[in-house]
Amino acid sequence: MNDNKTFGGVRVDPTRAHWEMWGEVDAAVQSEVAHVLTDHLLETADEPLTVDLSGVTFIDSGGLRLLYTAAEHKPTPPVLVGAPARVVDLLRLSGVDTLFILND
């Protein structure tokens, strides 16, 4: 990590197309992990992506951009698991909810 104080992040499963987002997923987190996530998307290109959002306490446009990038790179819609209501609301307000499969 750099000198920016971040209170959230994304854990990447190196064995499959799976991310776990946690805490405050904001622009600081985006700038810190975007290259890692893009590499992971390329490495798992043909695999469906699952993103566990159950640990997210806050998300802004930076976090939304990470999710949107995932949808752009995958042949099938990413599956979002455990998305809190505030994340679902942001996806709907942004008009990108149809790019994902929402799974409780």
From TrEMBL:
Domain STAS: 23-104
Organism domain of life: Bacteria
Name of the protein in question: Anti-sigma B factor antagonist
Organism: Paraoerskovia marina
